[in-house]
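Predict the 3D structure for this chain.
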Amino acid sequence: MQTYLVGGAVRDKRLGYPYSERDWVVVGARPEELEAQGFTPVGKDFPVFLHPKTREEYALARTERKTAPGYTGFQFHADPDITLEDDLRRRDLTINAMAEDEQGQLVDPYGGARDLEDRLLRHVSPAFSEDPVRVLRTARFAARYHHLGFRIADDTLALMRSMVDNGEVDHLVPERVWKEMERALGERNPEVFIRSLRDCGALARVLPEVDALFGVPQTAEHHPEIDTGEHCLMVMQQAAQLSDQTPVRFAALTHDLGKGQTPEDEWPRHINHEQRSLPLVKALCKRVAAPKDYRALALLAAEYHTHCHRALELKPKTLLKVLKASDAFRRSERFEQFLLCCEADARGRTGFEQRDYPQADYLRQALRICQSIDNRAIAERGLTGKEFGEALERERLARLGELRAGTNRPD
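Done. Predicted structure below.
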């Protein structure tokens, strides 16, 4: 029985990139032998065990055979006669098909170390095309290592295109799409995930609402980059620089979906695109199984980002509407996420990347002013229920009126 460190830990160690998890492959063993040593079986489809002390995953070397479309259409086979090279051959990319033996020596039968040096994401074998999730994973790795100069190899990109053309990508299920997408949103360059999917044609199948934005023009005065799809990628990039929160980055991606539905005879203007965005955001979130908090923030940013941009011009009634719609009085964290989305939108334009965004501080001050109202003083006037609510509303509007008049404007 031999044990090898495999996968991401081997890859990232050689890159000098931080990693926290270690995975292991065991060659020449049977399940009962590991259980006799105290390992706990956890694998449903193939033998995977947790180490009795470290709780790290140890998998028996295995091969797989395609039996049906999609990522679940595989039959796995684990046997003591299966070699390490057999196990590594079934992996997606060469940089993920390296191993280290118990002495720390590299085992690299498919050229992963060379591809690390060449900054290439290359498939191990034609079997790559049997699992549509690998299209998403490759795009995610492109986002993860973009800042290090990595790119998808031409032959691998061609293979990914063929998987789109032959319909294999259409067998992706929402839960796996979201798992890869959420991880990609957490990378340093999440916009590269979207661009990579578009490069191979998968974006039109997975996120058609986003794909529809490319080629749609905007007014050059406000959007020197012109193309709406490119704008959304720039907004994602700005969101990644402003925040490590993945819901913010997701909302940045989806905030302008309605522009993809603007009639061509109205281009480059996009009147009422905010309202057109809402059903598209809902449809996208349902298709990829996005969690409720992601959906809520995406809808909020889609409907009210223009209001935020115009905050300094808003009448008190509209300003209060934005605060209520964002649930700012109860959910300050989501309100801050909304402001980050809007700031990313304002900066996600060619030449505007370093532009200040005073609107966010103005809205924060508006919230603080409303929160400073003494509710007890209103209650002491004998007001309850509806009358109390109406009095509080009047006081808030009065305070916001003073803010708009300049009495309490931020410096």
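The longest helix spans residues 385-405.
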